[in-house]
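BACKBONE STRUCTURE TOKENS:
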Amino acid sequence: MADVVFFPGALQALFNSPSGGVARDLARRALRVETQAKLNLSGAFPPPSAPGESPHLRSGRLRASVTWELGEDAIGLYAAVGTDVPYGRYLEDGTDTIAPRPWLKPALAAAGY
């Protein structure tokens, strides 16, 4: 049986480099979730959406703002998908007076995560 030789620098690049294999895989998965989230936000206008349904399209601002980015924390690389539009969270989770109209969590499920 042949000896297995590890190259620490190569392993470090594979797992932690923004251009390594893990980062490329995370980017591919994040793009899949982003695409599905944007599809979920493409409902026709009008009628208004019912509670529990994806929100219907009004201006397209929320849909256009959905994006992803790679980051690194103490554990390692991660991909974040979301929006900086404040009402995106209110639609996703609902409020005291508005029922949820989720668009991101279903995108994760549809993308297989």
In short: Strands lie at 67-72, 77-82. Residues 8-110 form one domain. The chain is about 40% helix and 10% strand.
